[in-house]
Write a structure and sequence with these properties.
The chain has 681 residues and is α/β, with parallel strands linked by helices. It has five domains: 2-168, Rossmann fold (3-Layer(aba) Sandwich), CATH 3.40.50.1390; 197-322, Putative Large Serine Recombinase, Chain B, Domain 2 (Hect, E3 ligase catalytic domain fold), CATH 3.90.1750; 342-407 and 482-559, no CATH class; 414-472; 567-676, no CATH class. Helix content is 45%, strand content 11%. It contains 25 helices and 17 strands. The strands form six sheets. The chain has a four-stranded parallel beta sheet, sandwiched between helices. β5 (197-199) and β6 (207-209) form a beta hairpin. α14 packs antiparallel against α19 (482-496).
Length: 681
């Protein structure tokens, strides 16, 4: 079938210059083929999606896939593998933040496929700009987008379909919003029913009080008006086994967010519609709530629905005003490397708490809902360092990186990438010049000169196309994973040098994105009573949407802060001491040996004592963390203090400097001057 497909491509290429052949070919076939794709083996993919609507079911997915398969058969293209059939269920086409959609584009960028087919343009996206972005992305990678109904659309028709899809969505939103406002003006409930109420069957939005839930609402308002914190109320509700409106555990946001229970006027008999509006972030797809001016809201007095008395309501609103209004999620501050990847064994996310620079990690279910028994917190810098070292030592560096263990498409060689980019850019330039020659006034040349120019440009286009056909991607085993492993090793080294790591500029954000692309999930178990903790890391595959199996796991002792909290620095200091990198040479010791002849320095060998002082001066390693070869930290500290206060250390530095010893070249001779104070014991 592939041979037939490539043969048809060659026939179509001839048809571009032969009108008779063009008339013989079907319009669908001619629109579907592409000379760029003919230069290499074609790998296809299918994308299917249905929206969260009652009329969209799994049968819609089956219909879309069958239509795309039939289309591939009609143009002689190979069928895609099961791994390249991308399906997004219950997903809106208004934003690109869809798992299968993103996986498909990642596979395209990795060179996984070249030709994608969907049933209709609005299955890919309902956003005009996004449709054009994806179209350009496929063209950039030498591929194309096809549709089972329309075939391959030209940019102009693509714009029309994109605009119609976006306009259809906008009109649907406007009609729905108008209907909701009309229902709200009539006093009917619109949207989700508030906790404490239920709708009368068959009444189309008429509410009545639910007695059991209404008593819970009174309890919440009463406790909050009496001074209880939101967190203590939430913990009490969860402890008593009272489910929230969704049947899950309560949280602080359920009570005190902008649309939270404590801010809803329905509990005093005022049904409000349109108090907030939502907008969707075009990049992340997340929705954000915004307050609506009071004059644009619809408020209906329904005293029969009041479940909280006016005095309790007023007291609760006064407390909300004193704490700065309703609970608002803080705007995204400095991005942190573990956000969105780190979890507690209970399944809840762990979040950063505390002041900037002294962040700690805590289970959100414990701090916000009280449903997790793991109430312990741990310094974020400790966990960040442990995770990075764990990935470096056992997972994602050197020859043991997941990229080298998972069968992936190897990366293209750099010369090929550069040359192909140069040719494609030149092709665009030459084609634009050729188009401009169709308007003689543009160049101001005679007909003969224009004909000569066109012939030269067409000859150059044929030459570029021929070179593009012979320029093939060469994959080798050594290409696989090696570049990814080296790049990620550099990322780990950079982040380890700046713990706790904070993104200060776009380059730092790129480092965090690289880290998150390599890690799916990090789980920290802080339940041990001996203050130890266990870290489990699930690495992500670095190609397509294939996931790696296996988890990296390690048990860590009680966390240690300061110098000892960095195992790399501690190991480097121990290695430097054992190799005597800062120790006196025999000639140096002969110069200063006479200074130690008449005194007992806490029974420590004088030469080793001098070596310890030199080691501490050069490395800044705290005395309490001094390597064992220098002796007990307490004894060493006392002996070093006597050596400095007696003036012997200053004499040692002076004599070695006169002898031009390299061990004191550039040393800070005043480093221990603060030890001369009697206040230091």
């Amino acid at each position: 079938m592939t041979d037939n497909f490539e043969h048809n491509h060659r026939e179509n290429e001839r048809a571009a210059t032969d009108p008779q052949i063009e008339q013989l070919l079907g319009s669908q076939w001619f629109a579907a083929t592409d000379r760029k794709i003919a230069s290499r083996a074609t790998v296809t993919a299918i994308y299917a999606r249905y929206s969260p609507r009652p009329d969209e079911t799994e049968e819609s997915i089956e219909r879309q896939i069958e239509a795309c398969r039939a289309y591939f058969d009609s143009i002689g293209a190979p069928q895609p593998t099961e791994a390249r059939i991308y399906i997004d269920r219950m997903s809106s086409g208004t934003h690109p933040n869809r798992p299968a959609y993103k996986a498909m584009l990642q596979d395209l960028e990795a060179g996984g496929h070249t030709l994608m087919c969907a049933e209709l343009p609005d299955r890919v996206t309902r956003d005009f700009a996004e449709l054009h972005r994806v179209h350009k992305l496929y063209e950039h990678h030498g591929g194309g987008i096809h549709f089972a109904v329309q075939g391959r659309l030209q940019p102009a028709m693509l714009s029309v379909h994109g605009f119609l899809s976006m306009e259809q969505r906008r009109q649907l939103v406007l009609r729905t919003s108008a209907g909701r406002r009309m229902a709200a003006a009539e006093g009917r409930s619109v949207g989700k029913v508030a906790y404490g109420y239920r709708t009368v069957p068959g009444s189309r939005g008429i509410l009545v009080v639910e007695p059991t839930e209404a008593e819970v609402v009174r309890r919440i308002f009463r406790e909050y008006a009496q001074g209880a914190s939101v967190r203590s109320i939430v913990i009490g509700l969860n402890h008593d086994g009272i489910p929230s409106a969704k049947g899950r555990a309560w949280s602080d946001a359920v009570l005190a967010s902008r649309c939270g229970l404590l801010a809803r006027t329905i509990y005093v008999g005022k049904v409000t519609f349109g108090a907030t509006r939502c907008t969707r972030d075009p990049v992340t797809g997340r929705t954000t709530e915004h307050a609506v001016p009071r004059q644009d809201q619809i408020v209906n007095d329904r005293p029969e629905l009041a479940v909280v008395d006016a005095a309790t309501w007023a007291a609760a609103q006064q407390r909300l005003a004193q704490r700065g209004g309703v609970f608002k999620r803080s705007a995204a501050s400095t991005p942190r490397m573990l956000v969105g990847r780190i979890f507690c064994p209970c399944g809840s996310r762990m979040h950063y708490v505390g002041l900037r620079g002294r962040y700690r990690l805590a289970c959100s279910a414990s701090t916000r809902a009280g449903t997790c028994a793991r109430k312990r917190t741990i310094a974020a810098a400790v966990i960040e360092g442990d995770v990075l070292r764990l990935l470096r030592d056992e997972g994602l560096s050197g020859t043991s990186s997941p990229a080298s263990r998972v069968p992936t498409r190897g990366r293209v060689r750099e010369p090929y990438t550069k040359r192909r980019a140069q040719l494609e850019r030149r092709m665009v330039e030459v084609e634009a010049q050729l188009d401009a020659t169709m308007e003689p006034e543009t160049y101001g040349l005679s007909a003969e000169s224009l004909a000569s120019l066109r012939e030269r440009l067409e000859s150059e286009i044929r030459g570029i196309a021929s070179e593009l056909e012979t320029l093939t991607v060469q994959y080798t085993e050594s290409d696989r994973g090696s570049r990814a492993a080296v790049d990620f090793s550099a990322v780990i080294a950079t982040m380890l040098g700046r713990l706790p790591f904070e993104a200060r500029d776009p380059n730092d954000r790129e480092l965090i994105d690289t880290f998150r692309s390599a890690v799916d999930r990090i789980e920290i178990d802080l339940s041990a009573k001996d203050r130890s903790y266990r870290i489990r890391v699930s690495p992500a595959a670095w190609s397509g949407h294939t996931k790696t199996a296996g988890t990296i796991e390690r048990l860590f002792d009680r966390p240690r802060l300061g110098f000892l909290g960095d195992p790399d620095r501690a190991a480097a200091a121990l290695d430097a001491a054992n190799r005597e990198l800062f120790a006196l040479a025999d000639d140096d010791w002969e110069v200063v040996e006479h200074l130690f002849a008449r005194r007992n320095w806490r029974r420590l060998e004088p030469r080793r004592l001098v070596d310890a002082l030199l080691f501490h001066t050069w490395t800044k390693v705290p005395i309490i963390c001094a390597p064992p070869r220098f002796g007990s930290a307490v004894t060493l500290n006392a002996a070093m203090t006597e050596l400095v206060r007696s003036g012997t250390w200053a004499n040692v530095i002076s004599l070695l400097a006169e002898a031009e010893s390299p061990v004191v070249a550039g040393i800070d001779a005043t480093y221990f001057d603060h030890w001369k104070s009697e206040a230091r014991k």
